[in-house]
Amino acid sequence: MPLYIKGRQVDKVPTADTFFDEYPHFKESSSYLLNQEVREVGPIKLLYIGQREVAGTSPLDETISILGSEDATTCHIAVLRHTGSGATSLIHFDGCSTSDGLKTMISIVTDLTEDMSSGRLEFHLVGGFSDERRNSHEVADKVFMALYQCGQDIHLVTACILNLNTVYRFANIPFPIIYGLAVDVKTGELFRATFPDKGPDLFLRSARHFTGGKENIVIYDPHKSELVIGPFHYDILPDVDIYLTLPDHLIRKYLSTSPEQEPDGFEDSIRAALIQIRDFPDPIKSVFNGGKPRKYRKDISGMWIMVE
Length: 308
Prior knowledge:
By secondary structure, the protein is α/β, with parallel strands linked by helices. The protein has one domain (about 5-200, about 210-230, about 295-305): CATH 3.30.1330.200. The protein is about 25% helix and about 25% strand. It contains ten helices and 19 strands. The protein has helices at about 20, 25-30, 30-35, 100-110, 135-150, 200-210, 240-245, 250-255, 265-280, 285; strands spanning about 5, 10, 40, 45-50, 55, 65-70, 75-80, 90-95, 120-125, 155-160, 165-170, 175, 180-185, 190-195, 215-220, 220, 225-230, 295-300, 305. An eight-stranded mixed sheet has the order 2-1-10-9-7-8-5-15. Helix 4 packs across helix 5 and helix 6 packs across helix 9 (about 265-280). InterPro entries: NTAN1. It comes from Candidula unifasciata. GO terms for molecular function: protein-N-terminal asparagine amidohydrolase activity. This is Protein N-terminal asparagine amidohydrolase.
């Protein structure tokens, strides 16, 4: 089934290099996001989704009404929403398992929609910038290919990516404009956002993708209103103690795809993930209690509380 742009079927795979020449209207449609002020989103009703994670819910969910992700430099944040049911999924793409990640988004929305014919699937893509290494272009190309080859009719509505999401600062160095994105599940509104609270087990979750876990994992059960982490393995880093002694500028240089553009706190988050890997080298035994997932539910303040 095909990809649609402005109601017309796309007959060839779009590419990052020619996308805006072929579809210039996305420049205008992206302006509403680019001109927004960044909103700080608190923990109440929020589900934060990290790199190589995917989740979704519907307007019927009484626990979650905002899906969001941030710290995207070369990564892309994508939202898929069914216009009839309002069922919505969000993913943080970094170029790994892109096609499977899109299929998971579709599966989440389909599961939460009783009648798919009552509306259409709309896709929104935000992130990446004109980085010199062209990592953002590679991520975008993989997303375009996945959209073109997927088994559902999908309408690409927003593409605020690459050069549209680029600003030049400090001796003409490119930076992304939008680092974080949220979607209101009940209304479908997209907005720029930052998230002081990113949920539990953040460094455990980071350790998985930091050591090469390629899968985009589902982290939320909308039927039980539970955040579900793991179980999963991550690779052992034999030189982890050496990495932990590196100064900030070398951590940025060697452990990021876009060293100059990383947000504040990048080095601290990397060190915390490295400590997680060092101190818990076998998470199935030491963290996941013999292979059981870590499950959480939100309390009245919006904090995630572990379910025993």
